[in-house]
Design a protein that fits this description.
The protein is mainly alpha-helical. It has helices at residues 20-25, 46-56, 61-70, 79-87, 92-103, and strands at residues 2-5, 8-11.
């Protein structure tokens, strides 16, 4: 993929970082190819934010599953929210519990 900005052109592979002078002088470079960034989507529902707090606090999976099953919140996670939960350390059984709760 080629990135051109202010008359400069640079070939970049997906996931490859751009050199600093591209990032500082090119407005589109600020959102392209930088690694190590927080991958949290801009919009996350309040119910999913609560689960992320539990994951970040290293709550055990049975505690998080009980929270999902007993909380008085609606769950309808998007794919981006499920990916974010996985990135925060959610195991498959937690994601399954969340999806099953969404069906009820």
């Amino acid at each position: 993929m080629a990135v051109a900005c202010w008359g400069r052109r640079r070939n970049v592979r997906p996931g490859q970082s751009l050199p600093g002078h591209y990032q500082s002088s090119c407005p589109i470079a600020h959102s392209f190819g930088r690694s190590g960034e927080d991958k949290t989507p801009a919009k996350i529902s309040t119910s999913i934010e609560e689960i992320i707090k539990l994951l970040d606090a290293k709550a055990s999976p049975p505690v998080i599953k009980a929270f999902i099953q007993n909380a008085l919140m609606a769950y309808n996670p998007t794919a981006a929210e499920l990916i974010t939960l996985k990135e925060h350390g959610a195991e498959a059984d937690i994601l399954v519990a969340l999806l099953q709760r969404a069906l009820n």
